Automatic annotation (TrEMBL):
Cofactor: Fe(2+); Ni(2+)
Keyword terms of this UniProt record: Amino-acid biosynthesis, Cytoplasm, Dioxygenase, Iron, Metal-binding, Methionine biosynthesis, Nickel, Nucleus, Oxidoreductase
Name under which the protein is recorded: Acireductone dioxygenase
EC number: 1.13.11.54, 1.13.11.53
Binding site for Ni(2+): H99, H101, E105, H144
Reactions performed catalytically: 1,2-dihydroxy-5-(methylsulfanyl)pent-1-en-3-one + O2 = 4-methylsulfanyl-2-oxobutanoate + formate + 2 H(+); 1,2-dihydroxy-5-(methylsulfanyl)pent-1-en-3-one + O2 = 3-(methylsulfanyl)propanoate + CO + formate + 2 H(+)
Compartments, record wording: Cell membrane; Cytoplasm; Nucleus
Superkingdom of the source species: Eukaryota
Role played: Catalyzes 2 different reactions between oxygen and the acireductone 1,2-dihydroxy-3-keto-5-methylthiopentene (DHK-MTPene) depending upon the metal bound in the active site. Fe-containing acireductone dioxygenase (Fe-ARD) produces formate and 2-keto-4-methylthiobutyrate (KMTB), the alpha-ketoacid precursor of methionine in the methionine recycle pathway. Ni-containing acireductone dioxygenase (Ni-ARD) produces methylthiopropionate, carbon monoxide and formate, and does not lie on the methionine recycle pathway.
Protein species of origin: Tripterygium wilfordii
Family the UniProt entry places it in: Belongs to the acireductone dioxygenase (ARD) family.
Length: 226
């Protein structure tokens, strides 16, 4: 059973494997016993995160540096709660549909909190709880969803490279180049972690190796990226 580490980011970001319950999506949905996921483990899925000073985001040099280094030229804010978000019921339902984007999804929580759920290599849901001061980047091509927690409020800074594109592609959209690129990255990481023989025995290897090979032969992936 995983437990929270001493990573200072975990004051504002925590992750764990979800149970299979159909109860209120705003509940934590821990497994029993609880099974935490470290933020370093999340980074192996391409999900990266920071702890920042949400009370001083306008002058925060760390945020400024991240934006400059990663090219996040666009910025706005989104408040999600029944009182502030137009068509709230429709929007919150669409946010919780499993989907991917063809660009990164960058969210910096400056008030409130919420859950970002992402699929791991074996198609299991990991719930990432983002609280005030937590910034998360979901890579292009990752299947994910969002919901509020029981506090029913989040105010998030949205960042983007260039003009924003918020288009969600509900699952299945495995044919998109962003999905191929992410699978290639995850397969590389998995291969490095497990070695060739053990890699073939993992769920990721079994499910995606032949799939990705087929896409390479069709000219849809760069074989040289391996």
């Amino acid at each position: 059973m995983g437990v929270p580490s001493n990573d200072p980011r975990e004051d504002v970001l925590q992750a764990w494997y979800m149970d299979d319950s159909d109860e209120d999506q705003r509940l934590p949905h821990h497994r029993e016993p609880k099974e935490y996921v470290s933020l370093d483990q999340l980074s192996e899925l391409g999900v990266i995160s920071w702890r920042l000073d949400a009370d001083n985001y306008e002058t925060d040099e760390d945020l400024k540096k991240i934006r400059e280094e990663r090219g996040y030229s666009y910025m706005d804010f989104c408040e999600v709660c029944p009182e502030k978000l137009p068509n709230y019921e429709e929007k919150i339902k669409s946010f919780f549909e499993e989907h991917l984007h063809t660009d990164e999804e960058i969210r910096y929580c400056v008030e409130g909190s919420g859950y970002f759920d992402v699929r791991d290599r074996n198609e299991k849901w990991i719930r990432v709880w983002v609280k005030k001061g937590g910034m998360i980047v979901l890579p292009a091509g990752i299947y994910h969803r969002f919901t509020l927690d029981t506090n029913n409020y989040i105010k998030a800074m949205r960042l983007f490279v260039g003009d924003p594109v918020w288009t969600p592609f509900n699952r299945p959209h495995d044919h998109l180049p962003a999905r191929y690129s992410l699978l290639t990255l995850l397969l590389q990481i998995c291969f490095l972690l497990y070695g060739w023989h053990d890699f073939q025995e993992t769920s990721l290897g079994n499910k995606n190796w032949s799939f990705l090979q087929g896409r390479v032969h069709q000219g849809l992936c760069d074989e040289g990226s391996w």
